[in-house]
Write a structure and sequence with these properties.
By secondary structure, the chain is of the alpha/beta class. Helix 3 runs parallel beside helix 5, helix 4 crosses helix 5 and helix 5 packs parallel to helix 6. The protein is globular and about 50 Å long. The strands form two sheets. A six-stranded mixed beta sheet has the order 6-7-8-3-9-10, sandwiched between helices. It has a four-stranded antiparallel beta sheet with strand order 2-1-4-5, covered by helices on one side. The protein has nine helices and ten strands.
């Protein structure tokens, strides 16, 4: 299997002295869909912000065999599609089309290619009929799907999502789960939604206090109640 993402001995401390990552190492192969779980403050979001260079710690991050450095940061950011928990952090243009087109336009692509990418991304998230809608008029579930489209239009190699099901009603949550299941892309998803983990991800990584404390088959981890309890997690 080809390695899509490799993190080796990653350490990071914030300016106030808080140590958020303590030697994190793991790898994900192409096509894998992996859940990242743990209590608040475990370091999950800090880790995700390292994967496309928003934060810089000590250690190595490799995407598609390419090491993340300041020199190749633009290339890495086009390879890692990061979707934030709050879609309003990602949607800032007047219309859906302009939001989804923003990345490809800033890559310098010709308008015909931009149109093709936008149409493909909206189709992938089942939002083709929304391209001329005003982004701020959409529901939370619709905004989350458009936020995913904004990174899909960049044609990333890996999709990284932070709490994708947070704030969704049951219908929107089910729509999102079906969408994530159908997307043919390598995926790392941070979530507290353990039923989502159980249903969607064959592999789960557990973080706590800035370290990976477990990494394995989701069924095995969810059956280990001692492990779950020790790290602030509940069996679904």
């Amino acid at each position: 299997m080809t390695t899509a993402l490799q993190v080796h001995d990653l350490h990071f401390s914030y300016h106030d002295g808080l140590t958020a990552l303590r030697g994190v190492s793991f790898q994900i192969c192409e096509g894998d869909k992996v859940a990242l779980v743990g209590p608040n403050g475990a370091g999950k979001s800090t880790l995700m912000l390292h994967l496309n260079g928003i934060l810089h710690g000590q250690g190595e991050v490799n995407v598609g065999g390419k090491r993340l450095t300041r020199e190749n940061l633009p290339a890495i950011r086009s390879m890692v599609g990061l979707v934030f928990q709050n879609p309003d952090d990602q949607l800032f243009s007047p219309t859906v089309f302009e939001d989804v087109a923003f990345g490809p336009l800033h890559m310098g692509l010709p308008m015909k290619e931009v149109e093709t990418r936008v149409n493909a991304a909206l189709d992938a998230v089942k939002m083709s009929g929304f391209r001329d809608r005003l982004s701020h008029h959409l529901s939370v579930g619709e905004k989350k799907r458009i936020a995913i489209a904004t990174v899909l239009s960049m044609d990333p190699q890996i999709l990284v999502l932070d709490e994708p099901s947070a704030g969704l009603d049951p219908r929107a949550r089910r729509t999102l789960i079906n969408l994530l299941r159908e997307l043919p892309i390598t995926m790392l998803v941070s979530t507290h939604d353990m039923r989502l983990v159980q249903e969607l991800f064959p592999r789960t990584i557990v973080m706590d206090e800035g370290m990976i404390v477990a990494d394995g088959r989701t069924n095995d981890i969810l059956e280990n109640e001692t492990l779950l309890t020790a790290h602030g997690l509940e069996k679904p």
